[in-house]
Design a protein that fits this description.
This protein is about 35% helix and about 15% strand. It has 14 helices and 17 strands. The strands form 4 sheets. The protein has an 11-stranded mixed beta sheet with strand order 1-3-2-8-10-9-16-17-13-11-12, sandwiched between helices. A two-stranded antiparallel sheet has the order 4-5. A two-stranded antiparallel sheet has the order 6-7. Strand 11, helix 8 and strand 12 form a beta-alpha-beta unit. The longest helix has 24 residues. The model has no long low-confidence stretch (mean pLDDT about 95). It comes from Streptomyces atriruber.
Length: about 475
């Protein structure tokens, strides 16, 4: 095959034409992992024997006349998904040897679509970091610069894709965990509309894997092209067969437009809470220029945009409101004491986080009501625009920082330091209201690091940002393999 790292779409075409077998694609991917992964450390739990068996079965099925969306395509799976015969520990040492009894819904859907699972990709401890490292599996490095992070929490999946370790991967996102690693590693990812893809079996060990959909969090696809994202989303999307799937089938509306010149796009690169670095601004500008050159209507301002400061505070409150559920009583009381000492005038992100951690059910319901007001604002905005272009984080991939106290970490934005977790405000732009967002690469920084942006679309119109991503891929280029 001509490409070093072919897309799933091209692999499928070659398989259907008889130009290659799944066994050959799988052996090639395994050889690349064994040769190149040691300094990257993306694949934390290889499953090569079963992958080879699955590839042989896929080849036999194709020879017998079968076909399915991912038949014979080598893929990887984020470590946090339950998969029979493989540990699921979320990087938690106390659950190092936990073995789930059944596959996660999305693993089952991958297998049903014919995918060949090469293994699992690395994650941060408890999926709770913008970097990927843990005591069990170590640190995943950025394929473009090993001194920098691959992002988190789907950092192993993004690094694997950038390195050619399989054509597709599945991850999850509550605070940019799909989009940030894609941005840092130069690949594609899609955060679906909240509730679009079932997440059962993507649960902290030891479970149980119940069909309860968590607030804010989604599961979604990662790939090396926009069209591959759509291919994998079509496999992943749909309700849990144990709950809504009993009564409902999924039918996503088509993209609003097929031509770039028909899109109406709002472009953002400034946030009232945190600066945007020059490299990311340049990436946003490249997209804005491509849109304008393609005839799209591009605007920089609108009174319809919901208040970004309030949105960030609300996101922070909702994000951390469930984080203390497993806290020991002593730790919870310490947080309560810190909140009691806050000034009423303290409206910082850190204060919103602490208040969210100890908010009452009444407070949460009020926050949820405010979220609905924001959702209504987004509906009004998307009556005038088809998509919003925005940063994913303020900078390209940053150097590893394993300070055990995240409150002491800082993010450097063009020489100015900000609190580490403040960089999540851009991820929260789509997460808080539950909007779909597609991460696309836009080129590289002056240091040679990948830079991406997110294309945010209307709820349950996921095909709109995905189609825009495909059109922009033609205009500004897409994935490039690390040198």
């Amino acid at each position: 095959m001509e490409q070093i790292f072919p897309t799933a779409e091209k692999m499928t075409a070659a398989l259907r034409a008889g130009e290659v077998t799944s066994a050959e694609l799988t052996d090639e991917a395994i050889a690349r992992i064994e040769r190149d992964d040691k300094p990257i450390n993306a694949i934390c739990v290889p499953d090569f024997d079963r992958a080879r068996d699955a590839a042989r079965r896929a080849d036999q099925a194709r020879a017998d006349g079968a076909d399915s969306p991912l038949l014979g395509i080598p893929v990887t799976v984020k470590e946090s998904y339950d998969m029979v015969g493989m540990p699921t520990n979320w990087g938690m040492p106390e659950h190092r040897d936990f073995m789930p009894a059944e596959d996660a819904v999305q693993v089952s859907r991958l297998k049903a679509a014919g995918a060949v699972v090469l293994g699992k990709t690395n994650v941060p401890l408890g999926l709770q970091d913008i970097q990927t490292f843990n005591e069990i599996y170590g640190t995943t490095n950025n394929p473009w610069d090993h001194s920098r992070t691959s992002g988190g929490s789907s950092g192993g999946s993004a690094a694997a894709l950038a390195s050619g370790f399989g054509a597709l991967s599945i991850g999850s996102d509550i605070a940019g965990s799909l989009r940030t690693p894609a941005h840092f590693c130069g690949v594609y990812a899609h955060k679906p509309t909240l509730g679009l893809a079932a997440s059962r079996g993507m649960v902290p060990p030891p479970g149980p894997a119940l069909p309860a959909e968590p607030d804010l969090a989604v599961v979604g696809p990662m790939a090396r092209s926009a069209r591959d994202l759509t291919l994998l989303l079509d496999v992943m999307a749909g309700p849990d067969p144990l709950t809504h799937g009993v009564a409902y089938d999924l039918r996503l509306p088509p993209a609003r437009h097929e031509r770039l010149g028909d899109f109406r796009v709002l472009v953002l690169d400034e946030h009232p809470i945190i600066a945007t670095g020059s490299a990311v601004r340049a990436g946003v500008q490249r997209v804005a220029d491509a849109l304008a050159d393609g005839g799209a209507r591009v605007e920089r301002h609108t009174p319809l945009l919901p208040d970004l400061t309030e949105a960030a505070m609300l996101y922070r409150q909702l994000l951390f409101s469930g984080s203390v559920a497993r806290f020991p009583v002593e730790a919870y009381e310490q947080v309560r004491a810190r909140v009691a000492g806050l000034s009423a005038d303290d409206q910082s992100l850190d204060a919103a986080m602490l208040r969210g951690m100890v908010c009452s059910h009444r407070d949460w319901l009020e926050a949820n009501n405010r979220r609905e007001v924001h959702r209504h604002g987004w509906r009004q905005l998307f009556a005038e625009f088809d998509a919003v272009v925005a940063p994913i984080t303020p900078t390209p991939a940053f150097p590893h920082d394993h300070n055990p106290d995240p409150r002491e970490r800082r993010i450097d934005i063009d020489g100015v330091e900000y609190p580490y977790f403040d960089q999540l405000v851009w991820a929260g732009l789509a997460t808080m209201p539950g909007l779909p967002a597609t991460a696309i690469p836009t080129g590289r920084s002056a240091e040679g690091l990948p830079v991406g942006v997110q294309l945010i679309g209307p709820m349950f119109e996921d095909r709109t940002p995905l189609r825009l991503a495909e059109l922009l891929e033609r205009e500004i280029g897409g994935f490039q393999a690390p040198k």
